[in-house]
Amino acid sequence: MTMNEEHDAINERHRNRMRRKKEIVDRHIAEASIDRGVLIVNGGNGKGKSSSGFGMVARALGHGMKAAVVQFIKGPRHTGEEAFFRRFPEEVQFHVMGEGFTWETQDRERDMRKARDAWEISRGLLRDEKIGLLLLDELNIALKYRYLDLDQVIADLKARPAMQHVVITGRGAPAELIAIADTVTDMTPVKHAFQAGVRAQPGVEW
Known about the structure:
By secondary structure, this protein is α/β, with parallel strands linked by helices. The chain has helices spanning 3-31, 49-62, 80-85, 102-105, 108-126, 139-144, 150-158, 175-180; strands spanning 39-43, 66-71, 92-96, 131-137, 165-169, 183-186. The chain has two domains: 1-33; 37-196, 3-Layer(aba) Sandwich (Rossmann fold), CATH 3.40.50.300.
């Protein structure tokens, strides 16, 4: 077989593989006929949980939807996400409700009060049909430490408007939340610059 013939054979095998793959993908797309709001949980120990959530907020705005953000735990440091999305007050409600990471606050009772205040705001947003996408950033941490009643949280999530999407982030997502979610992603760390002594960088970590 000449080099040209081998090249043509490789291309033909590729076309055949892609044709079969397209048939499978097209079939799955055709079978997915339900339109409704989805519940997304981004968990795991790796970087990117909140970043993915904020990416979906931006995506929602691009489609003309109204969005809202409630940040549990995170607090005093102003982030790039907050600075950016506060430029669009008509499109995005942004609520920073925490006072910092739990290892910084070291006050469980105070953290619990802040989490409950954050959930009251969240409950209002979960009843608002105008909110197309709601990001509950670091809610998993509040649930992990039992700052909130898990059964109440799940009931409120289930009672939201039919077309409202909710994204929940944070480590330690409880099994009960994973069970009712539509899409669950576990961020698995492979490497992180911090392990090599690189400080958190603006535009990357915050």
